[in-house]
Amino acid sequence: MKGVILDWATLGPDVDISPLTDIDLEWSVYDMTASEEVTERIQDAAVVLSNKVVITREHMATFPALRYIGVMATGMNNVDLEAASQRVITVTNVTGYGTASVAQHAFALILSLATSQPRYARASRDGTWCSSSNLI
């Protein structure tokens, strides 16, 4: 069976795909794929992974071997889900994507507000901090 990653470069340089390539599939990995290249690149693929490349009804209809489309992000708006359902092609996205960084960001915002950091930052930019003897 064949697996294709259409836009590897959109994930960034720090993502390790070795767990994927250890799966018993013949992998083709492309840094980027233009819309006019999709048909050629997913030919005979059972598994297609995409981050931003659009997978249309036409792409799915052309290739009967296609069984799974994985979106390497949180959304699935780049895949025609109705067409996938009709052709019994499983489509998933990345569960838990960014969970740790979202939690970290939420706590950073809480601490920023709790310590009045936005007011202090604004005062340092507009000159209030330097001209006032009082704390904000």
Features:
alpha/beta, Rossmann fold, elongated, five-stranded parallel beta sheet
Report on the structure:
The chain has 136 residues and is α/β, with parallel strands linked by helices. It has two domains: 2-92, Rossmann fold (3-Layer(aba) Sandwich), CATH 3.40.50; 99-129. 37% of the residues lie in helices and 15% in strands. It is built from seven helices and five strands; from the N terminus they run βαβαβαβαβααα. A five-stranded parallel β-sheet has the order 2-1-3-4-5. The longest helix is centred in the C-terminal third of the chain and has 16 residues, at 99-114. It is elongated and about 75 Å long. The model has no long low-confidence stretch (mean pLDDT 90).
Domain unit count: 2
CATH topology of the largest domain: Rossmann fold
Discrete helix count: 7
Which CATH architecture of the largest domain would you pick?
3-Layer(aba) Sandwich
Amino-to-carboxy terminus distance: 65 Å
Radius of gyration: 23 Å
Give the CA-based shape: elongated
Q: List unreliable stretches of 5+ residues.
A: none
Strand order of the largest sheet: 2-1-3-4-5
CATH class of the largest domain: Alpha Beta
* H/E series: EHEHEHEHEHHH
> Can you give the mean pLDDT?
90
The tally of strands reads 5
Report the helical percentage: 25-40%
Corresponding CATH superfamily of the largest domain: NAD(P)-binding Rossmann-like Domain
**Major beta-sheet overview:** 5 strands, parallel
Tell me the β content: 15-25%
